[in-house]
Write a structure and sequence with these properties.
- By secondary structure, the protein is α/β, with parallel strands linked by helices.
- It folds into two domains: about 5-105, no CATH class; about 115-240, no CATH class.
- The protein has helices spanning about 5-25, 40-55, 60-80, 85-105, 110-120; strands at about 125, 130-135, 140-145, 150-155, 160-165, 175-190, 195-200, 205-210, 220-240.
- The longest helix has 24 residues, at about 5-25.
- It starts with a helix and ends with a strand.
Amino acid sequence: MKPTRLLRILIGLLFVLAGALLFLRLSGIEVPFNIPAYFFSWQMILIIFGLFLLFSGGNRNTGLTLLIIGAAFLARDIFGIGLGQMIRYAIPLLLVIAGLLLLFPRIRSKKKRRWEKRWNSRNVDTSSELQAVHIFSGGSRLIRSDSFRGGEIVCIFGGSDLHFRECKLSPGDNILNVSCVFGGVDLYIPNDWTIRSDMTTILAGVSDKRIKTSVSSPGDPEKVLVIKGFLMFAGLEIKTA
């Protein structure tokens, strides 16, 4: 059995067990063992969904975000760990992660070979206006429109990866509306596109991480993508396609 399928089965069984135990608890029926209260908390839901996205092939950035948020608030409630202590322990953890990334870098040639295998007709979008909704889920999509005009992305406890490597923009301003709560959106966009961001954020952020070089030229004024919308406990990253 594949690891991802096994993980889906285990998480599915965990949800069934949690639902059954919660039903018994609400019905006043006693169970023969004690169940910690945090087992039914919203933090545990975030942790479970984070693990599911991390290991099931979904949006791993969103999964990691949900896992960190859930674990941080759960640690605060169970162990009384404050924000200052979390930050103090986060610094060495980030150093270890950075060291591992340097020791085991991704090989771009392998990534390039996987590119064509990754996409099939189910996750290739050729429409001029995008519509993507992810609620407690994640997904990836390759945009192959010859006249992309924008669209709408909605993520609630979920995330979306959108790849614009093979996409062409329509003339003028093309507006992409993004609404994301407890999730994340990764946009893989060519370096020559001009990006304008007009986002409202609450404990969230927007970052343009496209590769810049010393000879990089300004974005093409004829290729303009305007990103509007609302982010709360979420993140939007723009990366090089």
